[in-house]
Design brief:
One of its GO terms (biological process) is recombinational repair. Residues 517-558 form the UvrD-like helicase C-terminal domain. Keywords: ATP-binding, Helicase, Hydrolase, Nucleotide-binding. Helix content is 39%, strand content 20%. With 579 residues, the chain is of the alpha/beta class. It has three domains: 3-200, no CATH class; 210-415, 3-Layer(aba) Sandwich (Rossmann fold); 420-578, P-loop containing nucleotide triphosphate hydrolases (Rossmann fold), CATH 3.40.50.300. Helix 10 (299-307) packs across helix 11, helix 16 packs antiparallel against helix 20 and helix 17 (457-473) packs across helix 18. It starts with a strand and ends with a helix.
């Protein structure tokens, strides 16, 4: 039996009954043992045509290479002008099938000999087989050995027919004055056949470079997010809009685009968010001219600036009560010129801002017309990313409704950032339901979410390091990886820092040659290609599942989740409940 390349006959691609017949015969004939048969072999460097195709290219050890043209027509004729009519419906063709396959064969032989001169002694021959008629005409234009027909195929079988053709052609070459190149009567050897196959059909293995993967992923996210810009058209008809949507729906990008458009209207803009790292991201995505016109600041820095307060107490009481009250006092002072100074308020991470009524009071005083009648745009995820408080979604909306009225809620539900496997894994663990109407990005064959289990911190640190080293060895830069933990002081990050002092850096001290780490809370609103999530000891509480939802949705390629062994049964329970 011959080795067929490709191994199966493509019925959709090939309609020729003759080719189908020969494919099956060549594959099953016992005389074709150790043969290699390439079906529908394209000859790119063809003389006289843009390209050519050989129906069957047959490599036979000890015999040579046969280029075989297949004609399955039941009626074949040629008129006195040399036009060939293949089939009853044929309108004629000036080129002989013998010439067609001969030219393709010679072009291929020239290519092979130029690539490897050691293969020059291999005989290359061509022939035509008429599988459904007994065409047996003779002509000086072809040799009898180059012609096979249906009757011969039926009586002798394809293996014997081809061997007979090889024997006659090899004998002819030997007796030719120009056949001195044919010095090896046993050519080609099995080794030569494999070398020949390597040149004819070299194995190909190409993939995008790591940097190209990162660039393509970033471009894909950008394109899909920009499709969401249509949502900003609502600004033309409403002074106040609340945009809501889960992670990955492009809320921050929309907020930045809205700010760019507002700058063109020469408005004084206050751009507020909760996360201090997000402030830098927003500034990086706005031009210098834009940032000169927009006051971009996180809520804590805003209050500190208004009160001109240098020393701070890093406690919930200070940030949620003491500092907000001092800020309100400053704004309500009769001498204050700060109230009503902004024409437009843009808020990202709205769910974290509206959780604190006093913060809303501060924004109300700063905005011209206040929250009730002023111009504002707010962007938030009230369901999954309200991780800084345990206040229910309904109460968060109520806090805003008390200060503002007559504003539409614009839902965003198309995920533009995460690949489908990331979304599915996040849905399973986060258990927040069907958050998306559409996931724009599909499968990524190279990068799937990875779950690792650890019994102690030492084992976790080893597995985290192994994952990092694999990504770095694959060629991904340090800056494409971010480590996230729910803990302010992560024991695994401390262990890794002790083992590999050169590897990690805090997120607030970025270095190109190091991998940044921070808390899940601090990275909310940001993204990176690879997210490594550590120190997960339980996945039962709603607060932890919200944290994991937030962390896993930060990735544009994939995440690595490190879970304590005690979570195995908890995850099994989640999987069972999901079915």
């Amino acid at each position: 039996m011959a080795r067929m390349i490709p191994p199966k006959f493509d019925h959709q691609q090939t309609k020729s009954s003759g080719e189908k017949l020969l494919f099956e015969r060549l594959q099953r004939d016992p005389d074709t043992k150790n043969w290699i048969v390439l079906h529908q072999y394209d000859v790119a460097n063809h003389k006289g045509a843009i390209s050519g195709e050989i129906d069957f290219l047959i490599l036979v050890p000890g015999k040579g290479v046969l280029a075989l043209e297949v004609k399955a027509h039941q009626q074949v004729s040629r008129d006195e002008q040399g036009r060939w009519f293949l089939g009853r419906q044929s309108t004629g063709n000036d080129k002989s099938p013998f010439v067609q396959v001969s030219v393709s064969m010679h072009c291929l032989r020239e290519y092979i000999c130029n690539k490897d001169t050691r293969l020059r002694s291999i005989p290359f021959i061509s022939a035509v087989i008429f599988t459904h008629c007994n065409f047996d005409a003779t002509s000086p234009e072809w040799r009898p050995s180059q012609l096979m027909n249906a009757e011969q195929l039926k009586k002798r079988g394809i293996g014997q027919l081809i061997l007979n053709t090889f024997d006659k052609e090899r004998e002819r070459i030997t007796n030719l004055p120009t056949g001195k190149w044919f010095t090896d009567p046993k050519a080609p050897s099995n080794k030569s056949i494999e070398q020949l196959l390597f040149l004819l059909r070299p194995p190909l293995s190409f993939s995008l470079s790591p940097q190209n993967r990162l660039d393509n992923s970033q471009q894909e996210v950008l394109e899909y997010t920009q499709e969401q810009f249509l949502a900003l058209e609502a600004i033309n008809y409403n002074d106040r809009i609340l945009y809501t949507g889960p992670a990955g729906t492009g809320k921050t990008v929309l907020a930045i685009e809205a700010a760019k458009r507002a700058v063109l209207e020469h408005k004084k803009i206050l751009f507020i968010c909760f996360n201090r790292y997000l402030v830098n991201y927003i500034k990086d995505n706005l031009s210098q001219a834009d940032t000169n016109e927009i006051d971009i600041i996180n809520i804590h820095a805003l209050m500190t600036r208004i009160t001109n307060r240098a020393p701070v107490e890093d406690t919930p009481e200070f940030w949620n009560s003491v500092l907000p009250e001092s800020t309100l006092d400053c704004l309500l002072d009769e001498k204050s010129e700060l109230t009503g100074q902004y024409d437009l308020l843009i808020v990202d991470e709205t769910q974290d801002i509206v959780a604190h009524p006093k913060w809303l009071d501060i924004l109300d005083l700063l905005l011209k017309g206040g929250l009730h009648a002023g111009k504002w745009l707010m962007f938030g995820d009230f369901k999954g990313q309200a991780i800084f408080s345990n206040i229910k979604e309904k109460i968060l909306f109520s806090n805003l409704n008390e200060r503002a009225s007559h504003f539409p809620v614009y839902p965003l539900s198309v995920n533009c950032r995460n690949t489908l496997p990331v979304v599915e894994q996040n849905k399973l663990i986060g258990r927040l339901g069907d958050l998306y109407s559409l996931v724009r990005r599909g499968e990524d064959e190279e990068h799937k979410p990875v779950l690792h289990y650890f019994k102690n911190q030492e084992e976790q640190s080893e597995k985290v390091l192994s994952s990092i080293d694999k990504l770095l060895a694959d060629g991904y830069p340090h800056g494409s990886i971010t480590l996230l933990s729910p803990l302010n002081r992560s024991p695994v990050i401390e262990l890794i820092s002790q083992k590999r002092t050169e590897l990690l850096t805090p997120y607030y001290q970025p270095e190109a040659s190091k991998i940044a780490y921070t808390t899940i809370h601090s990275f909310k609103g940001l993204e990176n290609a690879f997210i490594i999530i550590t120190d997960i000891d339980e996945i039962e509480s709603i607060q932890m599942r919200k944290l994991l939802y937030t962390a896993m949705s930060r990735t544009t390629l994939t995440f690595y989740l490190f879970l304590s062994n005690k979570t195995v049964s908890q995850l099994q329970k989640l999987v069972t409940e999901a079915k």
